[in-house]
Amino acid sequence: MNTEQSREFFIRAKKVIPGGVNSPVRACKSVGCDPLFVRKATGCTI
C-alpha cells in the first residue's frame, strides 16, 4: 500500500478540513500514524 500518497493527501486535507479528517476518532494520533486514503474497496475488504 502506498502510504506516501496518503500522507500527501492528508497534508492537503489539513489545509481545508480541521485536523484533516471529519472525525477526531479517525485522526490516528493515538496510534501514531496518518489516516489512510482509500480509492475503492470491495465489500468489507480494503
Intertermini distance: 10 Å
Helix content: 25-40%
Number of helices: 1
Overall mean confidence score, pLDDT: 78
State the low-pLDDT regions, or none.
Answer: none
Beta-strand proportion: under 5%
What is the H-and-E element order?
A: H
Judged by helices, strands and strand pairing, the structural class is mainly alpha
Major β-sheet profile: none
Number of strands: 0
The radius of gyration over CA amounts to: 11 Å
The total number of structural domains is 1
Structure overview:
The chain has one helix and no strands. Helix content is 26%, strand content 0%. It has 46 residues and is mainly α.
Short description:
This protein has 46 residues and is mainly alpha-helical. It has one helix at 3-14. 26% of the residues lie in helices and 0% in strands.
